[in-house]
Design a protein that fits this description.
Blueprint (H helix, E strand, L loop, with lengths): L11 H26 L3 E5 L19 H4 L11 E4 L6 E5 L21 E5 L15 E4 L15 H10 L5 H26 L4 H12 L11 E4 L21 E6 L2 E2 L2 E2 L2 E6 L3 H18 L8 H18 L7 H6 L3 H4 L19 E3 L2 E3 L19
Parallel strand pairs: 1-5, 3-4
Antiparallel strand pairs: 1-2, 2-3, 6-7, 7-10, 8-9, 11-12
Helix pairs in contact: 1-3, 4-5, 6-7
């Protein structure tokens, strides 16, 4: 990858049309789920700020993914959504008066006009707008409880919603492409920093500058691994000092757009011909696997095909001197590919529903001998 083409930004009318269609689809899915479960309304807590044990330092706020499915708000604890059949969605927007921290700004943007907007100053003031007649499905963590509004997370409602999340709307695909473009731009900056001999910490800083995100805003902690550190799948540190010689860089890092994540992993060499041959062979194998991604394909078959591809690379480059079938039969490729080949992506980096058999729940099993695969479903359009 030598350049990243920025996607054409949608016009205001196009964005509005995509968002309106997105909300209509979420309303349809929600009404279907409520009917199946015998509930009258869905209440969604954005979540609450959490603090370190015996301390007043908060962790980075992580919103409920069900909340940001409807609204592009990722820094808004204590707020609520109310979804009812036949009604405009209600957003109870908590905007505290605070001089210690920056409170959320007044609601604004392309999305606001589509909600019944109620602004309150304290979390407790939200309660009267949540106390509705009938059976309520309340989605959130236990600590989001507010008076008699206590999360119950009914599986008969959540299962169909989670199963449907695998299929993205046009609005969601737009946000995912934006996040991927932003991440790819930052990956190129990290690659340049590596070739300049920078440390892991400096490469990480170059990534952040290029994507314009603070570390707290990343969808997950960046994995920036030089040399032997790349052998640890989720290497969690970043050395401040550069090694005497930077031989290779593995970087697993993403970005987000309005709460939708990208997740990109790339490996870069530094001039060694044999290592570059390995990288080139792996990229060719990866592209062949990408060609298999089509609606109606069982994703487990793609994962199993990845092991046959790995066996071919290992034999081609003389790393393993065995027949490919023998490598697969004896599990040799699992030494080099112990993880799964991919996962669902969206509001969460590992988006929910990857194993679900259907709207009622259930699990589609992983292939024998492949315990770390995160997606076992049949691929669908979107």
């Amino acid at each position: 990858m030598n350049a990243v083409d920025s996607p054409v930004r949608p016009t205001a009318d196009t964005l509005d049309a995509l968002y309106v269609a997105h909300l209509a689809e979420q309303q349809r899915r929600t009404e279907h789920a409520l009917q199946r479960g015998g509930y009258d309304a869905l209440l969604i807590a954005s979540g609450v700020e959490k603090f370190a044990f015996l301390d007043d330092r908060p962790y980075v706020f992580q919103p409920n993914p069900h909340f940001k499915l409807w609204v592009p708000l990722i820094r808004h604890p204590d707020s609520w959504l109310v979804i009812r059949p036949g009604h405009r969605p209600r957003l109870v927007y908590v905007q505290p008066e605070d001089y210690w921290h920056v409170p959320p700004e007044a609601p604004s943007g392309f999305w606001v006009e589509h909600f019944e907007m109620i602004v309150v100053r304290t979390p407790g003031e939200a309660l009267p707008y949540l106390q509705l007649p009938g059976e309520l499905a309340i989605v959130g963590e236990a600590d989001a409880a507010l008076g008699d509004i206590v999360p119950n997370n009914p599986p008969e409602v959540l299962n169909p919603l989670h199963h449907a999340r695998a299929v993205k709307t046009g609005y969601e695909l737009l946000r995912l492409r934006e996040a991927s473009t932003l991440g790819a731009t930052a990956h190129l900056a990290a690659q340049r920093a590596f070739r300049e001999g920078r440390s892991e910490a400096a490469i990480h800083a170059a990534y952040l500058r290029a994507c314009g995100l603070a570390e707290r805003d990343l969808p997950y902690g960046n994995i920036v691994a030089l040399n032997q550190h790349a052998a640890v799948l989720h290497y969690q540190y970043q050395d401040q000092r550069a090694p005497a010689q930077s031989l290779s860089l593995l970087i697993d890092a993403g970005a987000h757009s309005c709460g939708y994540a990208s997740d990109i992993t790339r490996t870069t060499g530094n001039g060694d011909a044999s290592f570059q041959a390995l990288v080139d062979a792996m990229e060719a194998a990866q592209l062949r696997l990408v060609d298999r991604v089509r609606a109606g394909v069982d994703y487990r078959d793609i994962h199993l095909a990845s092991h046959r591809e790995i066996a071919g690379v290992l034999r081609q480059l003389g790393i393993v001197r065995m027949d490919e079938d023998a490598m697969l039969a004896q599990g040799v490729t699992s030494t080099f590919l112990p993880h799964g080949i991919g996962h669902l992506l969206g509001l969460q980096v590992h988006d929910i529903g990857g194993f679900m058999a259907g709207e009622d729940g259930g699990t589609i099993p992983k292939p024998d001998g492949h315990p770390y695969l995160r997606l076992t479903r049949m691929l669908q359009p979107g």
